[in-house]
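Hi L.,

You mentioned the student needs an example of a multi-chain input paired with its predicted structure. This one should do, with 702 residues in total across all chains.
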Amino acid sequence: MTLAEQIWQFFLSGLTTGGTYALIALGFSLVYNATGVINFAQGEFVMLGGMITAASMTAWGLPLWSAALIGIAGTTLVGIALDRAAIRPARGASIVVLIIITVGASIFIRGVAGIIWGPDERVVPAFSGEAPIGIFGANITPQSLWVLGATLVTAIAMWLTFEYTVIGKAMRACAINPQAARLCGIELSRMISWSLALAAAIGAIAGIVLAPITMTQYNVGTMLGLKGFCAAMLGGLGNGLGAIAGGLLLGVLEALGAGLISSQYKDAIAFVVLIAVLLVRPSGILGGRRGGEE
Amino acid sequence: MSDVTRRLWPLLMLLGLGVLAALVAGCPKEPEVVAPIVEVVPPEEGRSQEPTGEPLKIGGIFAVTGPASALGEPEADTARMLEEQINAEGGIDGRPLQIIIRDTKGDETEGLAAVKELVDREEVLAIVGPSRSGTTLGIIETVEQAEVPLVSCAAASKITNPVKTWVFSTPQSDADAVTRIYGYLQDQDITRIAALTASSGYGIAGLEQLEEQAPDAGLEIVAKEEFADTDTDMTAQLTNIKGTDAQVVICWGIGPTPSLVAKNVAQLQMEIPLIMSHGVANARFIEGAGDAANGVILPAGRLIVAAQLPDDDPQKALLLDYAKQYEDAFGKPADTFGGHAWDAVMLVVEAMRAGATDRAAIRDYIEQTEGFAGIGGVFNFSADAHYGLNPEAFVMVEIVDGAWTLIE
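Structure written out for the whole complex:
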């Protein structure tokens, strides 16, 4: 194996991991856009998608597709419930308070999942077999294509929603100017509810396509949420395209760091790059939006 | 929406979710029915008499709940099962055996509190457990001072090296696992190995042994890679290994990551064999890795291949009995961890049967135990060896068509 071939393999492996980071980052961006809140329960949505799918397959012997639909639907319900039970009652609180609420919610969801499903990891079968696919000397699994495909489709669907549907335009309006949006008759709290539901659905999709590669467990949400958050920061919070670019970049950086420098410091390398980027370009991350007033 | 429905919304949502969760949870892997242990061994006519008199007390401290519950639960179950069995057979010299189980929740402080309670209030004659190395190391000083024999179910070599007067351990050691693997590799004329180890305590201890024993075994470690327990993709590390002339990959980790390593090895179509540690000798590894598990080779205790052992194996009958009894009682397959507790409890019980009914006599008896066939292996203790096993406690096993298959 030549060095070039190795780097090509690192790159492809990184793209797969990056694809999931990108999907999670999209969820962060979505909620941030509509509410200005960083939803730290996003990682738990990813966990729930995978776990509900795996559990309904073992519980009811459902085929993968219907189990996946239940996974997405169930997680979306949790997203809506999160809004109704935790975010909405705190309406009027500052953004920081809302962020802390999402942190609490994520701990709560993780705990309940641990009680319901126990500590064991669960398996979701690969969607289309496990025979590796060779691409110019590097190998990826068919599931990697599913991950990248899901990222692409979700991103396009999100773009279409925001660009061409009333609800998408209303969400954007809330993001740009909540007061003006309200004067036009857009109910902000409904938009928040929508954004959480959508973010939950996207998180669930990420969890479901990822589960065959990594298996799933009640506590996988923490690390995935953190990585997705980093990806969103890297690309610029609230920017859909940035989320995807950030996710893929973070995944590739991790793989290259692990392969070329040291597998021991893999995570550290990715985070160092993140910090470096933030130092050079902090404006894309913090200065891009209004603060918490609404 | 009216005000009332608005207020009811969160409640309704939670209720709905609860129902959904309950439905989905209806399936779990845990046994649906836990049979009452009382009926495990029907009292045999004639021989068995209701044990009477002052009970012989053993304390059992296990991580029944908490992060190490995968270890502590089968250990506590096994201890309770043995207690029932022994009492159903008439106890020990007519006296009932009582195993008082306390949950450490995998926590050092809880473990220490449990030891103090068992020693001072319950006045137990010996303690079996704890499940975890950290908890064990945390109570050693206390049991040494109190002069109570402790038979630990945790594997860290520090527990019995250097030897502590009152402390013994039952699980097979990392060092013996590595010795067994290296012996196997020498038979295959392999000289160059790649190490892929977890950056957790388990992986680090494994790597230390791999490095320490390599020169004597005539092996060269040509690649060293690591992964974290939260990693989801090890292809980068494996690609590096693929670029070396290593003849075999040795992976040292526990939890879900070894399954991912096996999958990644299959993905990269690596042609060299993959060897794992004894830490993956459970059904979940095969389930997690799927087809990629086939061909993986590992050292393992004899329990998982009991039926394939030659009939003259001193452990065979015992292993088959234990596996059957455990599965009948708890509806799930017996595992290595329950075996550690079996060994710990029975070492103490053997001493009691031989007439050792005070703490010092039990300690002395265990220290002189030789050729005791247990679940983990054949134990030989001595004044300088409070870890009673050797590399022979392991057999080499290959996964063939998703099943453990004895090599040799």
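You could point out the following to them. Residues 15-126+140-221 of chain A form one domain. Chain A is about 75% helix and 0% strand.

Best wishes,
N.
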